[in-house]
Amino acid sequence: xxxxxSRNLRQVAAAALAALALAxxxxxxxxxxxxxxxxxxxIVDLLQAAPGGGDSSNFASTLQSSVSSGADDxxxxxxxxxxxxxxxxxxxxxxxxxxxxxxxxxxxxxTAGLAVPAAFDAAMTGTITTxxxxxxxxxxxxxxxxxxxxxxxxxxLFTVANVTFRGHDQARHAVSVTAGxxxxxxx
Length: 187
Fold this sequence. Notes:
Number of strands: 8
Number of helices: 2
Order of helices and strands: HHEEEEEEEE
Number of domains: 2
Strand content: 35-45%
Largest sheet: 5 strands, mixed
CATH class of the largest domain: Mainly Beta
Radius of gyration: 22 Å
Shape: elongated
CATH architecture of the largest domain: Sandwich
């Protein structure tokens, strides 16, 4: 093998290895890097829901929403904050705490082409640190039960509610995280 060919093979191998390392590092940090350019990010430890009109302390990992109840269905999320830089000795400060200012709910049908309730935004406030914090919010507003496609629902409608929690750290860097929960609408 000539020196020129050997050197070219080493260069190609080095370039391929560098590209592989870049792709791997991009995919590993992708979820936390999508949360903004601040030094901290949000982690969803738990997302649950409870049907309206009943025992709202009965939160579960799925929701069976009674359209005829006419009451708001509640969601409950447990959030905590972590540092993007996991270097030993890097500890969070008050600046890294994340204040939640609102949330967005978008329903996705279990079967393509089915109509689902309209997405909505609402305000909520809570400051998240490294300790788990639980916030309660409206997952299915009672007004949605009075409108199509839920009004006059015959049978069941299976959906996933994707909930995006939005806020900022104390240096005003935007932060958000999304989690989903199964919601079955029944008459």
